[in-house]
Amino acid sequence: MANTETVELAALNPVLMQNRELLDYWRSLQAEPGDVPPRARFDPMAVPRVLPDLMLLERIGEADFKVRLMGTALAERSCVDLTGQPLLEALPDVLRHPAAGSLAEVLSLPCVYLLRRRLRQSSGTIPLIEALHLPLSDKSGGAAFVLTTVLEFEGPVEELDETSSDDWQSPGVRQRAVL
């Protein structure tokens, strides 16, 4: 993706505690550094503080992902629970293409993807968010699932607010760690 910095996995530094916890748990599932952990080893109950803001996506072809799990807080903020539904057709047009590209990249490289930026919500608010995308493999060993969070910052965020624009291509923090 354009404007995405490639870093070592150890240099990837989520700001929000839930994302740090999820990244640490995901790393613990790796058989060896650089491996994509198997979906079968992922236990959502192992990350209880993250669970309300977690989505588990499964690739269902080249152009879409099915939501296998959607946390309650994420469903409330989105005003819809997409569990069992295709993700991309539920997104606004302005987000559909960029989301498809970043999710596909997570599986094709594979890589871990961290994003911190402003994101316009359907309510009209534009909170600062931090999103983390982590690949998981299917039974055959191919990367086929994405664990993802989209968390909103609470309280003052001036020191983190790198953009006040709601344009998807606007500056912000975009990092990927290729496995």
Q: How would you characterize this protein structure?
A:
This protein is of the alpha+beta class and 179 residues long. The chain has a single domain (5-178), classed as PAS domain (Beta-Lactamase, 2-Layer Sandwich). It is 20% helix and 27% strand. The protein is built from three helices and seven strands. It has helices at 17-29, 72-78, 93-108; strands at 5-6, 54-59, 65-70, 111-118, 128-137, 143-152, 173-178. Strands 1-7-4-5-6-2-3 form a seven-stranded mixed β-sheet, with helices on both faces. The longest helix has 16 residues, at 93-108. 30% of the residues are buried. The model is unreliable at 161-169 (pLDDT under 50).
Question: How would you summarize the topology of this molecule?
Answer:
Elements: E1 5-6, H1 17-29, E2 54-59, E3 65-70, H2 72-78, H3 93-108, E4 111-118, E5 128-137, E6 143-152, E7 173-178
Parallel strand pairs: 1-7
Antiparallel strand pairs: 2-3, 2-6, 4-5, 4-7, 5-6
